[in-house]
Specification:
With 258 residues, the protein is α/β, with parallel strands linked by helices. It contains eight helices and 15 strands. The strands form four sheets. The protein has a six-stranded parallel sheet, sandwiched between helices. The chain has a five-stranded parallel sheet with strand order 7-6-8-9-12, sandwiched between helices. A two-stranded antiparallel ribbon has the order 2-3. Strand 6, helix 4 and strand 7 form a beta-alpha-beta unit.
Length: 258
């Protein structure tokens, strides 16, 4: 059986390309090579706080240069999903500019007056008042969507409660579970493939987490590369009932494959 060619690349951001504001080994060369060889690619992140423009600037500060159109966030994937479900709908949103901007640009009306959806995203300042409003709107019939299931997010002082944790609180109060759009939902991967007009059989997913990046890539039909520069250690891989295509030290090992 001949090895399939790799035409397109999807890669996670945190733990693969950067860590706490510093480019990881090989990341600058990897992205530069993708661009020089004109390979279709997207950088994926479950983080819905920032717009692609914000993230492009943050990556540029580490030496990684790429256009904002090469960044695909869970906020953008959520906006695309809602547009496919109900074009021109309305939503009550808990989140930051990355999410509100994506929904606004998708033609959604942001309102607390009988919205079609309650959309929960990431924010560093979750408001009890906003959560209460979301609970009441869901009880009143609004459909519950969340950008991603991550229960904690990092900070300099330690973990912060994230979208998944707040979603669990809303679910406990309403009896309604949200539909999570971001990884590990393969919906995130498929929307990224559509964005760059790529095919799953000739696309690779690069990530640092078995429970999000790798499983989402496998379920979307992609080959998967796990790098050990993020949250997963080599010995952790054995705990999972699925395997990546390969386990690598860093994206430096992928430059020659581009």
């Amino acid at each position: 059986m001949t090895e399939r060619t790799v035409d397109s690349w999807l890669t996670d951001m945190d733990g693969v390309l950067v860590h706490e504001g510093t480019a990881l080994p090989g990341a600058v060369e990897f992205v530069r090579t993708l661009r020089e060889r004109e390979r279709p690619f997207l950088v994926l992140t479950n983080n819905s706080i920032f717009t692609p423009r914000d993230l492009r600037a943050r990556l540029a500060a580490t030496g990684i240069d790429l256009p904002e159109g090469a960044i695909w966030t869970s906020a953008l994937a959520t906006a695309q999903f809602l547009t496919d479900q109900m074009p021109g709908g309305s939503a009550y949103v808990i989140g930051e500019a990355g999410l509100t901007t994506a929904l606004y640009e998708a033609g959604y009306t942001l309102t607390a007056a009988r919205p079609d959806f309650v959309v929960l995203g990431e924010t560093r300042t979750y408001s009890f008042e906003a959560i209460t409003q979301a609970i009441r709107l869901i009880q009143g019939g609004a459909r519950f969507i969340a950008t991603n299931p991550d229960v904690t997010g990092p900070s300099a002082e330690g973990d912060l409660p994230a979208t998944g944790a707040v979603a669990a609180m809303i679910s406990a109060a309403t009896g309604r579970k949200p539909y999570f759009v971001g990884k590990p939902n393969p919906m995130m991967i498929r929307s990224a493939l559509n964005r760059i007009d790529a095919h799953s059989e000739t696309t690779v997913m690069v990530g640092d987490r078995m429970d999000t990046d790798v499983v989402a890539g496998i379920e979307a039909g992609l080959r998967t590369y796990l790098v050990l520069t993020g949250s997963t250690r080599a010995q952790d891989v054995e705990r999972f009932p699925f395997r990546p295509t390969a386990v690598l030290d860093s994206v430096a090992d992928l430059v020659e494959l581009v």
